[in-house]
Amino acid sequence: MKLFSYWRSLATYRVRVALNLKGVTPDEVIDVNLHEGRQREDAYAKINPMKALPALMLDDGTVLSESLAILEYLDETHPNPPLLPTEPKARARVRALSQMIACDTHPLIVPRVREYLAGHYKVDETGVNEWGRHWHDVALKALETNLASSPETGRYCQGDQLTIADICLSGQGVGAAYFKCDTAPYPTVSRIIDECAKLDAFARAHPLKQPGAPAAS
After folding, report:
1. What is the CATH number of domain 2-80?
2. What is the number of other CB atoms lying within 10 angstroms of the CB of residue 63?
3. β-bridge mates for residue 5, sequence order
4. d(Cα 200, Cα 180) in Å, to the nearest integer?
5. Domain positions in the chain
6. 88-205: which CATH topology?
């Protein structure tokens, strides 16, 4: 198994957390430097035509992409600990929370979007960072409203079971820190992120713990 990764990729962070929780260690982690544009090179485009991270190459050569799809694959092939509830409504809620982050928010702040804003529309660095903070705040507000108002929220997003929603929420917290978002107005979100940070699987997966990461960010 090979994981195509970059230290700062939040989508890859989700996959690293899941791998850690499942006790699965890739045989090789291949660095694809997003800020140098390595994802656009032909060699990687053949692995993932979307030219995005992560990609997980299985032993038989099958390549999986899109972090949520990879998380569910890992959950189906390595069922312990389970990362989705068994009850259908709870599963739908966990998937919805996850998609609010991975599908509705994260795609708006990835490097290719920020580069396009800067290159095509001539948005300066301040403006690009404001763009990132805006979409993080939109998501954090919606997540806080959902989590704080639902009786299904417990220690984690869905009761006391760790799920893919917590993995995504933790990544949202990392991204908020990148863009210097104030998370104080979102106490339920912050509490769950802090709970996840106590777990070794999350701590080891943190972007700043990966090869190539700066000493501080």
Report:
1. 3.40.30.10
2. 14
3. 31
4. 24
5. 2-80, 88-205
6. Glutathione S-transferase Yfyf (Class Pi); Chain A, domain 2 (1.20.1050)
b/e map 113-132, b = 16+ CB within 10 Å: bbeebeeeeebeeeebbebb
pLDDT in the model for residue 108: 96
158 bridge partner residues: 161
In contact, 143 and 173? CB cutoff 8 Å: no
Over residues 64-73, the mean pLDDT reads 98
d(CA 44, CA 30): 10
d(Cα 192, Cα 69) in Å, to the nearest integer? 23
Q: pLDDT (tens digit, 9 = 90+) per residue, 113-125?
A: 999 999 999 999 9
**Cα distance between residue 172 and residue 194, in whole Å:** 12
Cis peptide before 207 (omega within 30 of 0): no
